[in-house]
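Reader question, answered in our methods column.
A reader sent in the components of a multi-part assembly and asked whether the whole thing could be modeled at once rather than chain by chain. We filled in our standard form and ran it. Here is what they sent:
COMPLEX SIZE: two components
ENTRIES:
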Amino acid sequence: MNQTRRLLSLPVFAAIMVALISSACDKSSEAKPEGQAQTPFPATPKAREAVPVPPARNAGAVNAPTNPAPLSTDMTPKEMYIAYCGACHSVDLVESQRLGREDWAWVMQDMVEEYGGAWIKPDEQRIIIDYLAENFGPN
Amino acid sequence: MDKLNRIHTSAEFRRRLVERGATNDDLRRFDAFVSRRGFLGASGAALLSALGADAAFEGLFGRGLLPMAMADAPASSDVDGKPGMILHVTHPVSGEFPPHMLDDDITPTQRHYVRNNGGIPDRATSGDTRGWQLTIDGEVESPLSLSFDELRAMPSVTMPLLIECAGNGRAFFDPPVRGNPWQHGAIACSEWTGVRLRDLLHRAKLKPSAKHTAHFGDDPPLGQAEPFSRGIPIDKAMEEHTLVAFAMNGKPLSPLNGFPVRLVVPGWVGSSSQKWLNRIWIRDREHDSQKMTGYSYRIPKAPVAPGSRPRKEDMQIVTSVLVKSMITRPGPDTISKAGQAIDVAGHAWAGDRGIAKVLVSADYGVHWIETKLTPPPNPYAWSRFEARLRIQQSGYHEIWARAFDEAGDAQPFRQPWNPKGYIGNVIHRVPIHIET
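And here is the structure of the entire assembly that came back:
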């Protein structure tokens, strides 16, 4: 990863990233996407006002959540991990675990497919998986 | 049995561990212990001399096990209303209590573990029941919509009921698996007051097509996850101990444990017991939410090799928890005197099944004593076991407990593996130190 000169200190940077990406994580109660061969999943009675974001499985939808691309090239793997993973849950969820690379890849797959992380680009996924495997592996 | 030579170096010790089948995780912990504590320091020497004994070797290392003295200690944190909770995750809140804090037959609210999947609903923190509704719909003749007061006006029962997280014991899986690394304390047996779900379903008049429930709650999901939802077969829903609970230990539910109303499906994995309940949808098929499909809350139909990933088709849903026990007294690293009486106590449970007996050992499973078992107040509360031991030899020892259920199943000595570390029930081992 480039060690370019950064304008912001890590804590400020991470805070901004989390704020930007949190908008992608606003909760909405939606029916399951079409194409699922199942009874439509009914909305919970208390539907919240949602920032328009596509269902998790439609990665290429028009109103996809913003991936702040201009900043992402400047991120170190650690910054990316904290910003992306910390957007929806605290990072201690990640750091309490010690897994091999294959299992971290499985976790990432679930985040992308089921928890709304479809906006994480494949090369970014790889960067984060590598970081997790190296820093939170079994050894 | 051979006369075993004394062990003089950590290298010899490590070699014996490997010979006896210690896992990579055991070896990692051993290496960390050695580098942190200096194996031949004062405590190391004491450990060595104690572990040179034949009984220790056969009982412990014969099974390829590492002394509990080398276990990693969890850190505790302060969460509102749950002082001393070991917090694994800040958001969504996930925390447990160590066994020595869970001795009470009725778990106090402040010691009930917490496992959230999403956020905490506004109503839970405001404590306001006005406007809350419980909807029961789907395959019923008369869908219901009850206010909190209407629910409370119905006949209710009060009883201690056990709730255990599906992931309790996950920390002891080897190789490590994904998920919250619960140890022994993701379990509680508080006193719950509620309306039997059966009575509500009678009132709603189930259609013959009713097969399965689908539960919904007020907790906002993380990211774009589907709102957390699971369900149970109609038979379990109609079982007389399955409650729609509105009081916990005689008071309104705590915010973290599901205020104002939750399901209590005792003896089954905790995710069946939906918190912040607002709807039960009766379905004509097994519920197919995200948390009822794929690998969620599923174990392989047939045992698999550790570290493998069976196909989804070869997985089955987890329902009742397995036979298990927890030593609450003595606490870990208690110091006692040679020959002095040691009161051992704890709880045992087996989900839908009853407990037949609980045995304890102080010599790594070579000799076992049958404990005194107190019958539980109902089939879904845990049973108390008690025994009095005397250990004559000074040094490091472990108290082990092993529960047997009425069908003859018993806890394993090593944890059988499944990909997501569900329903772990390996025996509990508590280190203690005996002085002359």
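What stands out: Chain A touches chain B through 37 residues (CB under 8 Å). The longest helix of chain A spans residues 101-114.
Send us your own complexes using the same form.
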